[in-house]
């Protein structure tokens, strides 16, 4: 027996050969998320008179490969708010675990009703993101936080990997900011018109936006999650399908110019 | 017998476990800054100061929000800031702007708690400079301006560069359309290149005498300056927020502007 405790439990060289440490040796600096790898595309959301509607499709892309088709990117928090994630999926999962811990800790102090409103949650997440960008180790996400603020009014705000925050009657991340925002702004150009929207109108606007995005965003999917947040809590539907797509016109299109058959 | 013996051959575990020292260089491609557009403007009068800014928040060609104020009350005794006497405006990278605002506000609140009185504008201006210089080698990417009344009750504006150089001024425009607004202010507030009519030719011309402007005149100049900027700069628009600081407190007004 070897009397040196440092050697105990190590494979013997005379039996197994010397261990080739170069397989595991990593001399590179610790790798932070330097670019997103598996990504989620747009999140869209709009305020209405009693709350907020938010939606995101169920796809996680690996570059241009539609790799994971059942990834839920809306996360309810304490049955009072919803966080919608776009950007890197591993960072989303990290934040999801982080929020689970936070919800647990909060539930000890206030088990019956949510203590953190959506505006509190948004501030927390934006500080977290800003801290990480200041450490040059960003969480590569763009999030929307939907719910109610401390006064019980509908709340919707965004935070991105740089810690930038902003709020608006309707919000969208990524491709949605170009394609869905113009559609939503027709219905809710300002806070007053958003406060007149009914729940049904808001849901229809969001469904329309998801359809526009599926038509024109090459990283999107036709199955999506949709959540409605009101003072009564979060109603989440995770396996919605796009309806009434219009493709019939395509039969009449032939060639790229002069071709007629 | 054991070539991997940690004591005999030095550090040779199969995984890299060397502790990282603080400040060790790392390689990254991540850019921590961006520009969120917008413009700010501050003018000091005889017994008032007006701080103004548009409320548009952009990234690239997109409008993120049409109502994202960049002029803030600072150092009130509570979160509603209704007894504040100092106003801060930040323009540039909005996340740094918000961080700077939060930090200065906290410092002013702590000052009030420790000394039992609000911070003077002069003291706050110096403190803001040191906050900015504290991040000399990873700056807050903002043009900040501080406005209020000095110890004699006169209007005062302090303007800053991103690393804390500052100066007290009569008027200053900052942000995306700063270069469009500033020459207009030189002419309309400080009467630069204006001469008394009929006072002669060439070197005989007498400069028009400077006098402090009235509040309504200043408000008109600000509105006109922003209307001009909205026409000519794509990152400026949506609404004009004005905070008017007088000895009676701070009034806020929000006027609509073109949204295109």
UniProtKB/TrEMBL annotation, chain A:
<dbReference type="InterPro" id="IPR016295">
    <property type="entry name" value="Proteasome_beta4"/>
</dbReference>
<dbReference type="InterPro" id="IPR023333">
    <property type="entry name" value="Proteasome_suB-type"/>
</dbReference>
<comment type="similarity">
    <text>Belongs to the peptidase T1B family.</text>
</comment>
<dbReference type="GO" id="GO:0005737">
    <property type="term" value="C:cytoplasm"/>
</dbReference>
<keyword id="KW-0647">Proteasome</keyword>
<keyword id="KW-0963">Cytoplasm</keyword>
<comment type="function">
    <text>Non-catalytic component of the proteasome.</text>
</comment>
<dbReference type="GO" id="GO:0019774">
    <property type="term" value="C:proteasome core complex, beta-subunit complex"/>
</dbReference>
<dbReference type="InterPro" id="IPR016050">
    <property type="entry name" value="Proteasome_bsu_CS"/>
</dbReference>
<dbReference type="InterPro" id="IPR001353">
    <property type="entry name" value="Proteasome_sua/b"/>
</dbReference>
<dbReference type="InterPro" id="IPR029055">
    <property type="entry name" value="Ntn_hydrolases_N"/>
</dbReference>
<dbReference type="GO" id="GO:0005634">
    <property type="term" value="C:nucleus"/>
</dbReference>
<keyword id="KW-0539">Nucleus</keyword>
<dbReference type="GO" id="GO:0051603">
    <property type="term" value="P:proteolysis involved in protein catabolic process"/>
</dbReference>
<protein>
    <recommendedName>
        <fullName>Proteasome subunit beta</fullName>
    </recommendedName>
</protein>
<dbReference type="Pfam" id="PF00227">
    <property type="entry name" value="Proteasome"/>
</dbReference>
From TrEMBL, chain B:
<dbReference type="GO" id="GO:0005634">
    <property type="term" value="C:nucleus"/>
</dbReference>
<dbReference type="InterPro" id="IPR029055">
    <property type="entry name" value="Ntn_hydrolases_N"/>
</dbReference>
<dbReference type="InterPro" id="IPR023333">
    <property type="entry name" value="Proteasome_suB-type"/>
</dbReference>
<dbReference type="InterPro" id="IPR001353">
    <property type="entry name" value="Proteasome_sua/b"/>
</dbReference>
<keyword id="KW-0963">Cytoplasm</keyword>
<keyword id="KW-0647">Proteasome</keyword>
<keyword id="KW-0539">Nucleus</keyword>
<dbReference type="GO" id="GO:0005737">
    <property type="term" value="C:cytoplasm"/>
</dbReference>
<dbReference type="Pfam" id="PF00227">
    <property type="entry name" value="Proteasome"/>
</dbReference>
<dbReference type="GO" id="GO:0005839">
    <property type="term" value="C:proteasome core complex"/>
</dbReference>
<feature type="compositionally biased region" description="Basic and acidic residues">
    <location>
        <begin position="19"/>
        <end position="30"/>
    </location>
</feature>
<feature type="compositionally biased region" description="Polar residues">
    <location>
        <begin position="1"/>
        <end position="18"/>
    </location>
</feature>
<dbReference type="GO" id="GO:0051603">
    <property type="term" value="P:proteolysis involved in protein catabolic process"/>
</dbReference>
<feature type="region of interest" description="Disordered">
    <location>
        <begin position="1"/>
        <end position="36"/>
    </location>
</feature>
<protein>
    <recommendedName>
        <fullName>Proteasome component C5</fullName>
    </recommendedName>
</protein>
């Amino acid at each position: 027996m070897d009397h040196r405790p440092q050697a105990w439990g190590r494979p013997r060289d005379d039996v197994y050969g010397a261990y080739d440490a170069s397989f595991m040796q990593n001399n590179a600096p610790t790798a932070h998320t330097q670019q997103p790898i598996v990504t989620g595309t747009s999140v869209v959301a709009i305020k209405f008179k009693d709350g907020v509607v938010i939606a995101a499709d169920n796809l996680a892309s690996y570059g241009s490969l539609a790799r994971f088709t059942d990834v839920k990117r809306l996360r309810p928090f304490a049955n009072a708010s919803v966080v919608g994630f776009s950007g890197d999926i591993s960072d989303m999962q990290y934040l999801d675990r982080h929020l689970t811990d936070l919800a647990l800790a909060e539930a000890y102090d206030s088990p019956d009703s949510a203590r953190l409103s959506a505006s509190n949650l948004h501030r927390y997440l934006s500080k977290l993101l800003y801290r990480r960008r200041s450490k040059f180790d960003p969480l590569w996400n763009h999030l929307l936080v939907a719910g109610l603020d401390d006064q019980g009014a509908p709340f919707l705000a965004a935070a991105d990997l740089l810690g930038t925050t902003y709020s608006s009657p309707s919000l969208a991340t990524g491709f949605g900011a170009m394609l869905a925002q113009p559609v939503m702004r027709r219905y809710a150009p300002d806070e007053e018109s958003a406060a007149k929207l009914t729940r049904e109108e808001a849901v229809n606007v969001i469904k329309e936006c998801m359809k526009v995005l599926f038509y024109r965003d090459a990283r999107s999917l036709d199955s999506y999650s949709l959540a409605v947040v009101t003072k009564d809590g979060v109603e989440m539907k995770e396996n919605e399908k796009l309806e009434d797509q219009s493709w019939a016109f395509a039969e009449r299109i032939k060639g790229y110019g002069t071709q007629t058959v | 017998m054991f070539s991997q013996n940690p004591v005999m051959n030095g550090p040779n575990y199969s995984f890299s476990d060397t502790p990282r020292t603080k400040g060790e260089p790392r390689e990254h491609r991540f850019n921590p800054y961006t520009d969120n557009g917008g413009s700010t403007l501050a003018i000091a009068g005889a017994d008032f100061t007006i701080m103004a800014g548009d409320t548009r928040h952009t990234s690239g060609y997109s409008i993120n929000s049409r109502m994202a104020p960049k002029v803030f009350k600072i150092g009130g005794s509570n979160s509603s800031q209704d007894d504040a006497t100092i106003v801060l405006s930040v323009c540039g990278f909005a996340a740094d702007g918000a961080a700077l605002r939060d930090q200065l506000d906290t410092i002013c609140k702590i000052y009030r708690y420790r000394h039992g009185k609000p911070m003077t504008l002069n003291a706050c201006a110096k403190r803001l400079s040191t906050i900015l210089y504290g991040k000399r080698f990873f700056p807050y990417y903002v043009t900040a301006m501080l406005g209020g009344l000095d110890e004699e009750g006169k209007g005062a504006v302090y303007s800053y560069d991103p690393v804390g150089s500052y100066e007290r001024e009569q008027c200053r425009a900052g942000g995306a359309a700063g270069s469009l607004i500033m020459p207009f202010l030189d002419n309309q507030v400080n009467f630069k290149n204006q001469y008394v009519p009929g006072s002669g030719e060439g070197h005989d011309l007498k400069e028009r005498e400077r006098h402090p402007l009235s509040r309504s005149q200043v408000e008109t100049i600000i509105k006109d300056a922003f209307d001009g900027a909205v026409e000519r700069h794509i990152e400026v628009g949506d609404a004009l927020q004005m905070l008017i600081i007088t000895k009676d407190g701070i009034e806020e007004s929000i006027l609509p502007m073109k949204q295109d």
